[in-house]
Write a structure and sequence with these properties.
The protein is mainly α. The protein has 5 helices and no strands. The protein has 2 domains: about 60 residues; about 35 residues, no CATH class.
Length: about 130
């Protein structure tokens, strides 16, 4: 079974558990452990579900698919901003090119030598 399939299973299972928990209402005497332990155990179970859900979401966001989605959302936001405010791009093209090179280097798309060469080329164009 692939890693992506396992993640999907965890996400769907977590969502189902959260839905069932929300449908059952607040933890109360339904656990049958007695008046002293029911609220405490219910709280611990709810806390475990919330932390597990947060872990699943964080894991999905750190995955390659999650990062690709985030990049696409950023591109969409930039495109929308450019369409809504066409005259406010601001900045000179060289600084934008530097920012793009910096982002590519940070993402690991280019190595250090390529990054430094790009900066040198941009400086020579000025």
């Amino acid at each position: 079974m692939s890693r992506a399939a396992v993640k999907k299973i965890f996400i769907y299972t977590g969502a189902a558990v959260l839905l069932v928990t929300a449908a059952c209402g607040p933890p109360g005497p339904a656990l049958g452990l007695g008046p002293a332990l029911d609220p405490f155990v219910g709280f611990v179970l709810l806390l475990a579900i919330l932390l597990g859900g947060a872990w699943v979401v964080r894991s999905a966001a750190r995955s390659q698919d999650g990062q690709a989605i985030e990049r696409r959302m950023n591109e969409t936001g930039r495109s929308l901003r450019d369409r809504l405010f066409p005259g406010e791009q601001g900045g000179d093209p060289a600084s934008k090119a530097r920012d793009i090179a910096k982002e590519r280097y940070a993402r690991g798309e280019i190595d250090r030598d390529q990054y430094l060469q790009m900066l040198k080329d941009l400086d020579e164009q000025r």
